[in-house]
Design goal:
Helix content is 49%, strand content 11%. It contains 12 helices and 7 strands. The protein is elongated and about 75 Å long. The structure holds guanosine-5'-diphosphate and magnesium ion.
Length: 307
């Protein structure tokens, strides 16, 4: 990753940001974070989760408008590219330009979530930290609440907002109970539809059975705008959960990995005797995995004046 690109990013160049997000999506960009240094401010990272069709994208669109009206910048990572963010006057649909392409306070990226959902979560972590370094006040993650992935999303974000909607069939009640476990805030969405009150009652009853303190339950409609401001107030009033230290430690690890790779290359290029001995032993089966790793780490640690 070239230094000019990083310089442009530090200057706040959005094309540089877009390129770095792409690099991270392809798994090439994680090392960049260490070189960018620690973030100058902390973003509020919020997952908007719920099954397909519950209105996540539409609500995210509304939230963007509301957050912008508060004078805050917002980035969105949509992990469900099948349903593009289309809500609100601010944004067009996936194939149109946003209604205000000049608005530098909004950044939206759809992430292609193939069958390998795990990889998405992996890079999501790096992307969130990149967006934080760019200086966004708020980072919204739109994601389908699909069981396993939920815990990963929970760890990466400050809070998980779970969307439920009226007219959910009885067969989904169990699934709902599982999803409720990870929710920091429950939104009964599409509150303009009949049945919202019934679902709210069911949700509160289920939450009442749990031993942990019940998360707030809010009724919201992206369509009518009801409850959007209240939702943002509820989101904003929660303490940030992510532990910044963990992310910084990972950046440090990436820096160490890069340094080791550089020293390894230098040792190879200079036909380093120690390296050759290790490689010979390893090849001939004279060293087990742990032994070889330890020997190589010792050697590279000692080559301190390499680049
Ligand atoms: N009645 C009603 N429909 C909504 C509301 N929000 C979204 N929808 C509709 O629900 C459908 C799915 O919305 P979308 O945002 O794509 O859901 P996602 O798959 O969760 O991202 C669309 O047809 C929306 O127009 C709402 O507040 N009320
Ligand atoms: Mg969607």
């Amino acid at each position: 990753m070239g230094e000019p690109l990083l310089e442009a990013f530090r200057r706040g160049d959005r094309r540089a940001l877009a390129r770095l997000v792409t690099a991270i999506a392809y798994g090439d960009g994680e090392a960049v974070l260490g070189r960018l240094g620690p973030p100058s401010k902390t973003s509020r990272v919020v997952a908007i989760t719920g099954s397909g069709g519950v209105g996540k994208s539409t609500l995210v669109g509304k939230l963007i408008e509301h957050i912008r009206s508060q004078g805050l910048n917002v980035a969105v990572l949509a992990c469900d590219p099948r349903s593009p963010i289309s809500g609100g006057a601010l944004l067009g649909d996936r194939f149109r330009m946003p209604a205000r392409p000049d608005d530098d306070g909004v950044f939206i990226r759809s992430l292609a979530a193939g069958p390998g959902q795990g990889a998405v979560a992996e890079h999501l972590d790096a992307m969130i930290r990149l967006l934080e370094r760019f200086g966004f006040d708020v980072v919204l993650i739109e994601t389908v609440g699909a069981g396993q992935g939920d815990t990963a999303v929970r760890e990466l974000t400050d809070m998980v907002v779970l969307l439920l909607q009226p007219e959910t069939g009885d067969d989904l009640q169990w699934e709902k109970a599982g999803l409720l476990e990870v929710a920091d805030l429950v939104v009964i969405h599409k509150a303009d539809l009949p049945g919202a009150q019934t679902v709210e009652g069911q949700v509160r009853a289920t939450l009442g059975l749990s031993s942990r303190p019940a998360p707030p339950v809010l009724r919201v409609s992206a369509r009518s705008g009801e409850g959007v401001a209240e939702l943002w107030t509820a989101i904003r009033s929660r303490p940030l959960r992510r532990r910044a230290g963990v992310a910084e430690a990972r950046d440090l690890l990436h820096m160490v990995q890069q340094e080791l790779a550089a020293r390894f290359d230098a040792a190879l290029a200079s036909h380093d005797l120690g390296l050759r001995q290790i490689l010979d032993q390893w090849r001939q089966g004279g060293m087990d995995r742990t032994g070889a790793i330890t020997a190589l780490l010792r050697l590279l640690a000692g080559n301190a004046n390499a680049p």
